[in-house]
């Protein structure tokens, strides 16, 4: 069995070779560095490379499993993967740890007016009368109740916040005081003080949020997007923020990435932008490799995957 990486693995390379002596590991720097012989003979692709596409996969006739080292799979050629019966796993759960920290960093930055304090510092203006707001009692609504939302809900509950969630069919989730079906979004979105999108990109979630949803939100609402930028059209988001339908937005993902320097979002005062970094973490590679090891062990012993299996039809 041959397993080809899409990224260098540092000390993890030695660990994998020693742990699986019967697996032929090839470690590369991405699809452009994988030679034709390895393409023809590889059984497993693991790691991450944004250039992975159907053209490359079509040159891998023996490929049986892609172990994707990211949570999101929306940029992969899912139709090709599905039609060719290639198994797909992802890094779900690992990225949720630092993403939950980012979400609360955004919330606390906003509620405790840290940005205002920094601007005062730049202006050399000392304002000891400034007052922030407590999180206790605030309603936090998650669009999507997966691992990111669940991890963040644990923190929110310690802050005595009320945690609400939207998912496909209103199924209950631990840590959430109440959940709603996605069809009921308009009914609940007006109740939230903070709305956080953690939904993956699927046919059902692309442009799910329209201007009418933002019109239903509280004027003081805070909107945070760490899911996918395609949840709302960029021109709609710019219009919403220009008209101040909500108070502020923290955006880590965008409909078109990377943002160009001419993007109108840069000109708005009521938005804070980060460059799709909430999933980044120095611990990620090792932790996703542990998932890969569990699955590889199971494949070798039982010929089946046991963790983080993704349905390419649904995208999650």
Automatic annotation (TrEMBL):
Pfam families recorded: 2-Hacid_dh, 2-Hacid_dh_C
GO molecular function, one term: NAD binding
Domain D-isomer specific 2-hydroxyacid dehydrogenase catalytic: 42-305
Ranges that cross the membrane: none
Keywords from the UniProt entry: NAD, Oxidoreductase
InterPro entries assigned: D-isomer_2_OHA_DH_cat_dom, D-isomer_DH_NAD-bd, NAD(P)-bd_dom_sf
Domain of life of the native organism: Bacteria
Annotated ranges, domain D-isomer specific 2-hydroxyacid dehydrogenase NAD-binding: 105-277
Protein family membership: Belongs to the D-isomer specific 2-hydroxyacid dehydrogenase family.
Record-given protein name: Hydroxyacid dehydrogenase
Organism: Staphylococcus pseudoxylosus
